[in-house]
Amino acid sequence: MAILLRIRQSPVFQQPPPSGYLPGKAAEMVKGGKRDMSKKAQSATVSNTDAHAIPISLSAMLVTLGVVYGDIGTSPMYVTKALVAGNGGITSVNQEFILGALSLVIWTVTLLTTIKYVLICMKADNHGEGGIFALYSLVRRFGKWLIIPAMLGGAALLADGILTPAVTVTTAVEGLRTIPAMKSIIGPAQTNVVIITLAIIIALFLIQHVGTAKIGRAFGPIMTLWFLFLGGTGLFFVLGNPIVLLAFNPFEGISFLLSPNNHAGIMILGSCFLATTGAEALYSDMGHVGRGNIYATWPFVKVCLLLSYLGQGAWLLANASNPSLVGIHDLNPFFEMLNSNVRPFAVILSTLAAIIASQALITGAFSLVSEASRLDLMPHMQVFYPAETKGQLYIPMVNNVMLVGCVIVVLLFQSSAHMEAAYGLAITITMMCTTLLLFFYLHNDRKIKVFPWVFIVFFLALEGFFFGSSLTKFFHGGYFTILMAALIMGIMVSWFNGTAVERRQATLLPLRTYLPQLDRLRNDETYELMSDNIVYLTKDSNTDYIDRDVIYSILDKHPKRARAYWFINVETMDEPHTFAYSVETFGTDYVFRVHLFLGYKVNQRVNAYLRQVVSDLSASGELPDQTHEYSVYKKPSPIGSFQFIMLRKLLAPESDVDSTERTAIVLKYLIRRAAGNPARWYGLENSNVTFEYVPLFTKFKSVDKMQRIAPDERP
């Protein structure tokens, strides 16, 4: 008999009941009774892009400016600086260099960010979610090998996300030295810059728990002011030297790239690429703010960015012969071109913008890891949804790991000049992987014939040039991001391979065939009663089947006698406040298959919800009374004790697996242990929980038959 009870959506249930919720009151809050399971399940699982799309509005656009564009929005602080330094400094600046370098920057932003990501990539969303893992989920059926570029690109993007907060905040803080009063306080040593940078980064990560929406509303006005400042100051210098507008001609960039006056050679593309490093994060953050709001705000952002680059170029042309600039160490045109009265405001504003740039990568990392967990490329971790939108999430484990990584980067590299050498290399790998996956989406999923071939040839060639130029930075700091990407990739590969081994041995058994044994066991008084109710949390959502490991745990690992056996599956729904459950009793009063359908905003307090389910079944007579003679309450509850059992698999030494598979399993279990305590995820920290280890069912190695000898003999 299948029963579905829908919990009333009253204010009481906008937040789930506490763990100490009294089961006797549960039945009073139930409405309905028996419902048709198929209809309810069908309506509960409806999910599509339109249903969860974030509408376009001024407030949402403001959040978009505060969340999405931080990384790409702060690029004017260091792109021109890197271009000038790479070409020999201020003494090498001339009109050919300015027009050529600016042209390369303009068309890099246009081709990679506007055309590839905004106009093409953002059409490839998975129920509103963006990013390379969301893209992979759309094309995975077209080839098993596509998991390789997905993992490689995701690992590289996460590695870049650790570096971005460090390089942007350090660059902004170093701008304090362009103010004479602050320079005298900070001094020439880099130690004070490092201390200030670390304080800002730590504070940023500590506020992530409040949620993207709240952060975006706080940061949105600041970023709006930032972009207006970029555009306004840039326009001021462009009007004074409008010849820089010739940089819109792409042939200026191509001719300079091949010119003997290009002292950096192909390496100049590595510096130009820094102007578009936030493009992949923009795609990953789509689920936080909605595609429409990015479309509505990107034109404004791009115009302001290009005006800033052009303005810096115009100032350099006008001041290339200024002898006072030659002696400035690590010259940054972005700050130097400003009037001394405006510069303090610019430094403060740029520091705030740098903090927001870090925010863009952090939120993108949350989305990436969430998608990776759904694809079983990373372990399940505790996820919080601080806002009403499912895309806006917070993962404490990811937040803490990124914080530690950023601190290490700052302490290791110290200055922004050293960090810039490591910046951008990993993201080129992500972009090439995205291009490859996007080809399969356009060609195989969207059934477009010709355009995908043009797309993949053009963008792989373009990004290949950028990768080659960035690779020259490998020994100057690029090695660090590659090592981080390799570490993250190793985690995903180990988890993926370990899961594959587990799946090969996984077996689902028909639960009905074991009902007679469970019935005999519960009445077999030769075994001690372990608990009135034994509860297993299962991953599979199939009502009629159960994982073999669960049956093995009950029957084979010293039979576990109980009055009732509960097998619970928790499914997170796309609606925020879904609060329902179904129960299959198989016509018994001792076996219960429970499915909890919980909205993503509902805390997974399994203990509290199970108490309610048990109370309902007790009230309906489907669960016999489990009366206790002793209780802290005056009237003992008709519901007995509960024992939660969480299974963990172990690979026996005798298992017949090769060394690669054995290593994958061992590494997966080490990663799982580091990912946190699942009892806390399900609200069982105050419950009676037992972690039980069961063998990973695999083929065992054959062993030779031993010879039996007499007690007084020796072999």
TrEMBL record:
What is the protein name for this chain? Probable potassium transport system protein Kup
Fetch the Pfam families from UniProt.
K_trans (PF02705), K_trans_C (PF22776)
What domain of life does the UniProt record list for this protein's source?
Bacteria
Record GO terms (molecular function): potassium ion transmembrane transporter activity; symporter activity
Q: Where is the K+ potassium transporter integral membrane domain?
A: 61-505
Which residue spans traverse the membrane? 97-119, 145-169, 189-207, 219-244, 264-283, 295-318, 345-372, 393-415, 421-443, 450-468, 474-496
Q: What are the residue boundaries of the K+ potassium transporter C-terminal domain, all occurrences included? A: 533-689
**PANTHER family, alphabetized:** K+ POTASSIUM TRANSPORTER, OSMOTIC STRESS POTASSIUM TRANSPORTER
Cellular compartments per GO CC = plasma membrane
Alphabetic keyword roster: Cell membrane, Ion transport, Membrane, Potassium, Potassium transport, Symport, Transmembrane, Transmembrane helix, Transport
| Principal cellular location given in the protein's record | membrane
InterPro entries in the record: K+_transporter, K_trans_C, K_trans_N, Kup
Q: How is it placed in the membrane, per its record? A: Multi-pass membrane protein
Protein task: Transport of potassium into the cell. Likely operates as a K(+):H(+) symporter.
Catalysis performed (reactions)? K(+)(in) + H(+)(in) = K(+)(out) + H(+)(out)
The text of the family note is: Belongs to the HAK/KUP transporter (TC 2.A.72) family.
Q: Which HAMAP family match?
A: Kup
Q: Where in the cell is it found?
A: Cell membrane; Membrane
